Amino acid sequence: MRAAHMDGAGPNDTIVPVILAGGQGTRLWPMSRAARPKQFLSLDGAMSLFQQTLKRVADPARYGAPIVITHHDYRFLVAEQAQEIGINPAAILLEPMARNTAPAITAATLYAQKENPGAVLHILPSDHALATEPGYFAALETARRAAENGALVTFGVTPTAPETGYGYIEIGAERTKGVNDVARFVEKPDSETAQHMLDAGTYVWNSGMFVFEANTFLEEVAALAPEVLAGAKAAIAQGAVDLDFFRLDAKAFEAAPSISVDYAIFEKSSSVAVVPVSFDWSDLGSWDAVWKTGAQDAKGNVGAKNVLFSDSNGSLVLSEKAHVVLDGLDGVVLVASEDAIYAGRLDRAQNVGNIVKQLKSDAKTAPLTQTHTTDYRPWGGYTSVLMGERFQVKRLFVKPGKKLSLQRHHHRSEHWIVVSGTAEVTIDGKMRMVTENESVYLPVGCEHRLGNPGKILLELIEVQTGSYLGEDDIVRIEDAFGRT
Amino acid sequence: MRAAHMDGAGPNDTIVPVILAGGQGTRLWPMSRAARPKQFLSLDGAMSLFQQTLKRVADPARYGAPIVITHHDYRFLVAEQAQEIGINPAAILLEPMARNTAPAITAATLYAQKENPGAVLHILPSDHALATEPGYFAALETARRAAENGALVTFGVTPTAPETGYGYIEIGAERTKGVNDVARFVEKPDSETAQHMLDAGTYVWNSGMFVFEANTFLEEVAALAPEVLAGAKAAIAQGAVDLDFFRLDAKAFEAAPSISVDYAIFEKSSSVAVVPVSFDWSDLGSWDAVWKTGAQDAKGNVGAKNVLFSDSNGSLVLSEKAHVVLDGLDGVVLVASEDAIYAGRLDRAQNVGNIVKQLKSDAKTAPLTQTHTTDYRPWGGYTSVLMGERFQVKRLFVKPGKKLSLQRHHHRSEHWIVVSGTAEVTIDGKMRMVTENESVYLPVGCEHRLGNPGKILLELIEVQTGSYLGEDDIVRIEDAFGRT
Fold first, then answer.
1. Distance CA A366, CA A357 (A)
2. Which residue range or ranges hold the Nucleotidyl transferase domain (chains A, B) (predicted)?
3. Taking burial as the number of CB atoms within 10 A of a residue's CB, which of A72, A103, B315, B430 is the most buried?
């Protein structure tokens, strides 16, 4: 590829996608939570936003294998969601802590440059909604040509409404067909300013998607944000391969200033160009945005089959499990997860962030902002089904070929009843197979391990009994996922 | 007591309470459902409305043991809720089908008259909210004296708002202190008429509570609704004692016209008198009424500790399990059971009845109007915890000393794990004790029985596996509750 580039880049050169998957947005609570934020959720019951992003860069004629950069806590979510749709990232870089987009993109660019110094990169947030028609791939080609001519290209979406939740870009003179100078960046405006910019016709929404050559970008970072470059460089140099992941060095990465790539580079660089586009796009930054991008019925309501709208208009209802009736309410959002329900007005959906802060500040409600009732693990996951005073019931699912760690609990015994598939159970060194409708008992203190040796998902019901049932009563003796 | 009455009734005579507990109201959905309607629910986490009614008539200085009349389907709910608060009804009469209040009250009066021909009866709906202060028992004494002088007494509650959901009574001339003639009955009014009646000061709400002598009432039924009397008489005469219940004869009872006691008797009889009262009372006929009687905070919101009101006013939130945030919504009701959520406007809470009809008409949603996730049985009950494709998890609770039927399933095997208490388990004639943290397996087709021989509640987790898991796959071989 390098050779092709040296010969003058042609349309057959592939672009390296860099997917940003470390965000921890709170404004789609209760669906989005710290342990599983927006990008890993499926809002329409199909692929998650992260998976949709992976699919968007899956055509090998256009793109190379993606580099994903994510927070350490989300590494298994990234690996599993990619695997689920059959995509194999070139690398999964792990941020040891959140440092905003400038250090993350710089680190990913450095990583890509090692493989291919002249690579053209496409930076994609993984928590946006985007329709590739009309004109998405044509715009990408335009951006790539501009990038090959030394531009840092950003995509600017033609506004369709006076949105106050987006940053804007004022378009300057046309450089080449479809590529314009940037006159200026505009912070999230008030509604009057937003309306003015919409009317003016010379402003676009800042989409957060970029295309550039690795070298060009890194030169700009060296000039405009040298501390970011230094931190990212050291984090890569001192980083380590860990299973399928590349772990950025924590001390080095933390030394990089926490700053956005817009603020550190794009708003300052003279190399920035904008490619105006008009495909459907949303940052899904609030329930209001989700409602706008949803499939609205004749009355402007968005909801799945488990929702009954009765004399209601312009509302959004999402429910994981319970059937919902919305009766005589307009412009309302109601989102029901298994353990929390949010109901509010769509026109103040931005307030969800404050609500989450408020819930976090109370020890009793803080868990509702952290975890879901279903927790995904490298080997599968579990749903907390029932919590009693001295017992707990979980539904465990183990993927074919996967094993949990060899472990021991000090305070609880466990009963496992296999309801689907076959389990390989090892208790104090003795292994046996447990098949559908069989059960096994694990006394307090025994060394045990659960595996799925089969070809189909193993599902089992776990009944724990004991005086203390916290997740932290676990001694890992051996683990395939490096968690001992 | 009859003798005392013949000698002139004194204040030491006790009144026989007749509690109407057969109602099937739908307007408090999703809390209220066909299998467990309003009167058996606790709206404030303490006693159910039925239990509150039982407690109100529990003073032996005032009242004899209550007669409860209920629908056949609710017999175990009635028996258990009475037992739970240590009250032993004189009789539990079972309506084989709903025939409205006239046949039910007539049958209960006939039953009471057999024991005590001159008995003074107090008829009480069991699904209303009522504060006994101020003046409840004083009004009861006034009513009793009027009843002993041949009146059919109804209580009329001084209105505090122009309610359109209640029937009204126009008060006539005072007969004796605290007892007035009825000028006329007024059907549920429109809001203009309601305001007019409130302003006039001569109208009261028809509370549905009555006091009369059995003989007086039955004479009026004979004169005004002879078919009701004939049906009720035959239903009693051909009725049968069944365990702790008295089962009215179905064919006879069905022959009685389905008609309300107001329409059949009180609106027509010249013996009717009204005792105006001013204690707090509500028929809890809608979520709006529940909000009005609830403990409102400074912003007029009613909700338990699992609710966060944010910039919301005058709203009601009830949730069985999930934490609820109501954000920027005023005058709203949100009620969340485990499997259904209703959110609407308080000022159109009457519409819930229509919603339930709509849900009933669709086979997919009909079960949401019928049963709760927790089902109460004579021996205890169960909560459906998790439903899989070929498995189901239930939490069973068995009361001390109770036994389930000896039974067999054709299509499912069961695993029981005891998490609290001790179980007596009989499998194919062989009995064993299973204690906390032990489990037992019941293969398809085995004859089995579960009992709680201990002094504390037995709780167990049941995991069913099989190709068909419906409740109707049960062959009862022997049953302590007459269900074979």
1. 9
2. 17-298
3. A103
